[in-house]
Amino acid sequence: MTETDALTFECALDAPPEKVWRALTVPEYLERWLKPEQAVELAVVTSEENKSLTYRWREAGEGAVMGMEDSLVTFELTPTSDGGTWFRLTHAPIAVPVAANSNLAGPLMMAA
């Protein structure tokens, strides 16, 4: 995985960091923006209240994208002078080591 594998989105929100934090951490609020039909398992990796949060994001089921089953999603919240929040979301795949003899990229040798 390289730095370019990560997707980053930034925007200004018209809500204080404390309110945005609740939307990211309180289960009933999470369900409002995280599609319920999407099979996603979340586990907190790091957390600094009202500032940053990293989830290990695991997709399962039919909607899982090959290579993105496991990823890290980081939310960074910065208060703005007008009482809002500068919101930064980074979604990065977790590189899974592949065995040296793996045939994921095709066979290493062809049978004669």
Automatic annotation (TrEMBL):
InterPro entries per record: ASHA1/2-like_C (IPR013538), START-like_dom_sf (IPR023393)
CDD domains: SRPBCC_CalC_Aha1-like
Occurrences of domain Activator of Hsp90 ATPase homologue 1/2-like C-terminal (ranges): 14-97
Family, similarity comment: Belongs to the AHA1 family.
Descriptive protein name: SRPBCC domain-containing protein
Organism of provenance: Devosia ginsengisoli
